[in-house]
């Protein structure tokens, strides 16, 4: 018999051995599994086979180390941020301070006072950084939550100073400034006398607001979208691609793009929005998980601690398109040290199901794509290569060139995605009590086949 390893030992193992241990499959079976995998012809068959050799229901149990909302960690990061913020060289530590306050917000329970304090305290750091619009957003969020009345005067005073900074030499924001100063005065008697520094500052603002205009210039964020290049003439077949290019197919190169005319130096030939995207792990708390924009005044997911959004609009769109299903499943996969590409493969599957309306409809769509006769227009929608799942699915057509060992590796990763989706969501319409039920379920193995294909697509089509 082979040797099973504890979780702490997995990082030193060869990838397939590590995954076999996680799947409770004896590593001594590896050669036999590779041999059998080499005889299979479809991705659905490959995933079904791996699921069939996973026999221990322990794989359905919750893995340790999942990151959950936590008052303890929220307060811990809040204290860390406050210590950084009180440093005399705060200008050198503002990024770290804002990052620590963001972590406090991410770990805070929804609608809690801890969350309100996190927003309010981060607004102070954003104010110091000259990020006045971001500061105002955090102030508004704090005031919509159970923020302590005895601290509101300070918050309204900061709000007034933000509006004054944004006003500059214009007559803008007069009503906003007046309202903020009025609220500051109304809550002044609740500010404790023991907080003498804050009390003096608030009184100064009320007595002579013009002298309390921040001296730091407004920090202006680079708006990349506003400076996006434009196509002179879009192709009738390729969305976001210049008419200087067209799709062609031949036996030598397969489907490819050729020029229809001479292309000038510096000419824009494509401006395309990706069908799907996924943040690198190191950017998950500094950039919006939906639009990928850098954000300093982010809002967290109400359930998980994996993502932030630049505003409620992006948060709602992400939830509608994928995150409502992905959320808890991703948390489980992260605790199992799965690569981020695994979660991206899962996101693609969720988006495909939602786009189609159901797993049943998606199966019909995939069957139609598999039967498509013209390889040049494979995935086109009404004569156009749109940014939809139809255009993504055909992106990898060389499964026969992938080694059996690599198929095993990706099929094992896929199996853990399926388990996460089955135990953490209602995607398959029921909950599974045994791992043996998985390979017998046609919906599970169908989605498993797509997930395996997504791993193959990501390998050759994702740009980090």
Automatic annotation (TrEMBL):
The keyword S-adenosyl-L-methionine applies. InterPro entries: SET-MYND_domain_protein, SET_dom_sf, TPR-like_helical_dom_sf. One of its GO terms (biological process) is methylation. GO terms for cellular component: cytoplasm; nucleus. The keyword Transferase applies. Keywords: Methyltransferase, S-adenosyl-L-methionine, Transferase. One of its GO terms (molecular function) is methyltransferase activity. This is MYND-type domain-containing protein.
